[in-house]
Amino acid sequence: MEIAAYAEVMRRWLGPEGELEARLNPIHALERGEMEVPDFERLLARELTARTGVEHDPTDLLARMFEEFEHAHDMNALVRRARRLGIRTALLSNSWGDYYPRDLWDGMFDVVVISGEVGMRKPEPGIFALTLDRLGLPAQRCVFVDDLGHNIEAAAALGLAGVHHTGYDATLRELEALFGVDLG
To answer: What is the count of structural domains for the chain?
Structure first.
């Protein structure tokens, strides 16, 4: 798959502010579980074909796309170390189907909230509230780490401390400062 074509389609669907209505935005519909993966894959394949002029097979398109991305093993280890130190951990993820490495999660998270399973998505306030409720912690005692600024802003508006993840080292330093522990 051509990553540049994929990125262009995603930028167009998300719009300049990253927030179109779900009825217009197939990404948001997929993340909320309002659109089935095969329907999204057909739509994405059509868009990629139109953009590149090369026929894209929709079959397992998302699985093939996710093969292109590496798992953040260093971040996984960081979460495990935090949890071993008694810090409660949660995964709050906008889903694109069930392509999660769930087999790697044993001992990692106290709570897992997947958008397509709960019918909400980041940055909607309700999905943060649900995650906090399942954690049993108030927002003021929690830190939210994400690679998208608008998700950080939404979490901060609800009282969570936000860490904009741009790289492992910076995130590690911020979390160590916020929790007052050595996570390295």
So the answer is: 2
Q: Where does residue 73 rank: exposed (0-12), middle (13-18), buried (19+ CB within 10 A)?
A: exposed
Return the ∠ at Cα 14 (arms to 154 and 165), rounded to 5°.
Answer: 45
pLDDT tens digit string along 69-113? 666 889 999 999 999 999 999 999 998 888 778 888 888 999 999
- For residue 114, what is the enclosing H or E element? strand 111-114
Q: Tokens in use for 35? A: 């659109």
Q: pTM of the full predicted structure?
A: 0.82
Closest CA to 65 of 40, 35, 34, 102: 40
Give strand ranges (E) for 3-94.
Answer: 90-93
Question: Which sign does the torsion angle of CA 26, 92, 178, 74 carry?
Answer: negative
Do residues 134 and 117 make contact, with C-beta atoms less than 8 angstroms apart?
A: no
Query: Helix, strand or coil for residue 91?
Result: strand
User: Which domain covers residue 120, as residue numbers?
Assistant: 73-179
Question: Do 59 and 22 belong to one domain?
Answer: yes
